[in-house]
Amino acid sequence: MSREELKKLFLTFPTIDRPVVKTITVEMDKHEGRIGQGTVEITSDGPDGYSQFKTHQEHPYTYATSRQEFASGDYELIIIE
Question: Helices marked H in 12-77 — which ranges?
Fold first, then answer.
């Protein structure tokens, strides 16, 4: 199969039955000079598409809980230490 054929096949997969998964993942940094800092990753996947946003923050938990996605109540919060 050529690359073009694979791309067309991939785009024809049905997305109607795809479950909606929305997560906010906070991963604390383990490096000695960055204790208390970490990354925040906001992911949304479902029939409407896939989106992902990742950022490094000095206060990741505060940043994650102040986001509109967290306030909506639709996203699961995952904290990795």
Answer: 60-65, 68-72
